[in-house]
Amino acid sequence: MGTPHFGVSYWIDRLPRRRPSYPRYRGQNDVDVAIVGGGMAGCATAYALSTVGARVCLFEAARIGQGAIGSSTALVMQEPDVDFQDVLDAHGLRAARTIWRMTRRGALDLVAAIRRLRIPCQPEAQDSIYFASDPTGVQRLRRELGLRKKARLEARWLTVEQLRREANVEAEGAICVAGNAQVEPLRTCFGFAAAAVKRGASIHERSPVERIRAGREHVELRT
Prior knowledge:
The chain has 223 residues and is of the alpha/beta class. The protein is built from seven helices and nine strands; from the N terminus they run αβαββααβαβαβαβββ.
């Protein structure tokens, strides 16, 4: 059995010692939307909803950005983490194409919001490469590429030489998809949290939600 190793996330290590902080939740409040969890999804949702005038309250059990986002790959992907052919086989062309277009729209909107808010998270354009190292994998990749082209989704094939030259990877072939991005995830999370607060949202750290009870016309949360 291998020896476990522990360390500090690269993204956490890059942060300045002083980081944003938010008060514990105390008292009672009535809001339109309560969000449990202060990661990337929670903070971005708080920003989006507060922008359209919703009264938003976000509860985080520990600190904003302290969960999985601090150890993420930092990639903003324009497609779901599944092959297009698998979604097409399961749900049909129309549904598969809609899913791909929606996720692409979401990725573009996220990067646009980051730039609009001037969040200092160093967004950079990145390509994604899906490669195969055996004939079976190459056959599957070629089917994937063909189906994507039929659905009018952008992708291109990389030969062995192109893959070696462009990505320094030794494999039998690959699909390259452009239009993804890389950002510093914690700075992005903090940026959306700050933007949400500026638009009227309230954020509370060290405020774990202990109970959620749903009624007919409301939901009650207790910390």
